[in-house]
Specification:
single chain; 277 residues; alpha/beta; Rossmann fold; 7-stranded parallel beta sheet; 43% helix; 14% strand; globular
C-alpha cells in the first residue's frame, strides 16, 4: 500500500553543532576500535573533549598515527586486527598497560565484503564474521573480565548497522554479521549485568564516510550506474542528507555514560528515522 503524504516535501535538514562539552567522562578510560575511521575518529575527539583518555585501536597505522597526533597524551594508538584473536588479546593487554584500567569499550571496527547470496564466498563469511562478531566479542569479554576484577562499573557499546535489521541483498555477510552483533548485545547485557556493566549497540544508516562511498561504488558496479549519482542519494529519508560521524558519536558517548543506565541491551537506531523498529 502506498503512503499518502499530507505534509509538504522538505529539503535537507541542517546538522546541529555541539555547542558545549561537559566533563561527563572526566577521568574515564575507554577503548575504541576502528578509531582512525569516520565515526571512530569523531568519537575519539568527542570522548577527549568530554574528559576521557582513549586507547585508539586500528589496523591502519598511518591513519591511526594521524589521529593520535591530534591529542596531547589523551590518546594512545595501538595496532589491532580484530579478525585475529591473538591480535585482540595483545591489543587489550597493551591498552590496559597504557591506561591502567578501563571503564568501557566501543566496538566500532567493521569489515564489509560486498556480494549477494549467489556469489558470497566461504571466505567472505569467515572474514566478515571474524572482525564484526568474533573480534567484537573477544574484546568485550576481556574488557568485562578486567572491569569485574578491578571493581570498575562500565559500559560497552557495539556499532552495528541498520543493515543488521533490514539487510541488503548486495552485502549478505555484512548484514548477517550485524544482526549477530545485535543479538550478541542483548545476551551480553544480561550476562554482564551482575558486574554492573551496561551493554548496548547503535545501528547507523547512511553516514557520509568512505565506507558508504564504497557501498555506492558497489551499487554502481552492479547496476551500471554512476557512483557520483548514487552516493548523494544514499541519505536519510527524513533528514534528506547524509548522517555525520559526529552525530553518531554523540549517541555512543551517551550510551557510555551513567545517564544511560536504564537503557540496556538495546539496538538504538541512528539512521535518521529509516528503520521502523
Amino acid at each position: 500500500m502506498s503512503e499518502f503524504w499530507v505534509t509538504a516535501p522538505h529539503g535537507p535538514l541542517p546538522s546541529r553543532q555541539k555547542i558545549r562539552f561537559f566533563p561527563v567522562h572526566e577521568g574515564k578510560k575507554f577503548i575504541v576500535t576502528g578509531a582512525a575511521g569516520g565515526v571512530g575518529s569523531a568519537l575519539v575527539a568527542l570522548l577527549v573533549a568530554e574528559g576521557a583518555t582513549v586507547a585508539a585501536l586500528d589496523l591502519r597505522e598511518d591513519a591511526l598515527s594521524a589521529t593520535v597526533a591530534k591529542y596531547e597524551g589523551k590518546v594512545v594508538g595501538i595496532g589491532c586486527d580484530l579478525g585475529q584473536q591473538q591480535s585482540v588479546e595483545t591489543a587489550f593487554q597493551q591498552s590496559t598497560a597504557q591506561l591502567g584500567f578501563i571503564d568501557g569499550v566501543v566496538n566500532n571496527a567493521a569489515l564489509v565484503r560486498r556480494g549477494d547470496a549467489i556469489n558470497a564466498s566461504w571466505d567472505d563469511w569467515q572474514s566478515t564474521m571474524a572482525v564484526n562478531v568474533y573480534g567484537a566479542f573477544e574484546l568485550a569479554r576481556l574488557a568485562a573480565r578486567s572491569m569485574a576484577e578491578n571493581g570498575r562499573r562500565g559500559a560497552i557499546v557495539n556499532v552495528a548497522s541498520e543493515a543488521g535489521k533490514k539487510g541488503h541483498t548486495q552485502s549478505i555477510t555484512y548484514g548477517a554479521s550485524k544482526a549477530a552483533l545485535i543479538s550478541m548485545t542483548r545476551i551480553l547485557a544480561a550476562s554482564f549485568a551482575p558486574y554492573d556493566i551496561n551493554v548496548n549497540c547503535v545501528c547507523p544508516g547512511g553516514i557520509g564516510t568512505d565506507m558508504l562511498r564504497a557501498a555506492a561504488a558497489n551499487y554502481a558496479r552492479v547496476s551500471g550506474g554512476d557512483v557520483d549519482d548514487i552516493f548523494p542519494r544514499l541519505v536519510s529519508s527524513q533528514l534528506k542528507r547524509h548522517i555525520t560521524p559526529d552525530e553518531v558519536a554523540r549517541t555512543i558517548s551517551f550510551l557510555l555514560s551513567d545517564d544511560a543506565l536504564i537503557i540496556r541491551g538495546q539496538a538504538v537506531n541512528t539512521d535518521g528515522g529509516d528503520t521502523p523498529y
